[in-house]
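Structure ticket #2291
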Amino acid sequence: MKKSSLLALVALLILSACGKKEEQAPQAQGPAPFPVQTVARQDATIYQDYTANLEGQQNVEIRPKVNGFIQKIYVDEGDQVKKGQLLFKLETQTLNQDAAAAKASVDAAQVEVDRLKPLVERNIISNVQLETAKAKLAQAKAAYSSVAANVGYGTITSPVNGVIGTLPYKEGALVSSTTEMPLTTVSDSKVVYAYFTMNEKQLLDFSRTFKGATLQEKLKNVQQVSLILVDGSEYEYKGKLTAVSGIVDPVTGTTEFRAEFPNPESILRSGSSGVVRIPVEKNEAILVPQNAVMDMQGKQLIYVVGKDNTVTSRVIETSTTAGNNYIVTGGLEPGEVYVTAGATKLKEGQQIVPQQETAQQQGAPATDSTATATAKPSGNTTQQKK
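Resolution: structure written out below.
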């Protein structure tokens, strides 16, 4: 009796455990939802960034033309100066003595000429002696002019309007025309030049993108450029490309460009750095978010949605990064539908529930260190490109 009751109890426990396992077994789930978007061509403005060095429109090194001790410095570092303003005074006592001696030689030569003139007129001496005396007078005058000019070089003035740079020498220092460092540098920074380079591939892309028979003509077809400052902010004034080197540097393989920016408030300083941002128009481009693309063995893949809502991986080709988007040059056609996010969770042939997403829902592209883009649907003329 007890044995049969024990068996019945064991059987009841086994049945109960099986029932709980059946309750805990997960129920089969249907296709999962994924955001998708339909491929459409768009007009986009891509911004290409190039690191640049800033220089004033004129950077004039102030160097002495004569040897001497710095007697007086009339300016300080960072001062605004005008053209012709006194900067330095060099001690010229020795030069003054030389000038006095040269002036005395001129006076003596003049006396000799004055003495010989009446003698020649009365045919007492030949004209050759007078001409010789005149030659000596001319030689003395030239020597005096040279010494007098050197005395004048002791007073140094600014050749341009601008800002005073560093002052490496103090009063009392001995300087000369062969001194390694200049007395200072005067930088005219009302207009600032931003110098940057392109490598050969970038130069080739630039030449193909902008119209013109020469590089100078192509520069004229570039829109106004921006300057990104070291703190990441954008300089309030736009600039323009004004010059490009005619050759490629054989050592670096680069070509130098120059952009000009107005600097009325003296925010930009010569010697600082920034980033020149050039806008490039891309018409009828296909843009896809980077989240939709997977890198696999050097290839870029994207999942395309078929008619039965099953996904198939597709190899695509891209030309550049535009903010949070890739510009696709091959592998996708307008009208096709692709998955915009969560591609790493998908498998080949998996069925999904497409959730159509608009470009506005994806958000504006973020700024990238090499390129950004603002896109609009092709044919929409009311939306202004940024």
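Closing remark: The first strand starts at residue 32 and ends at 38.
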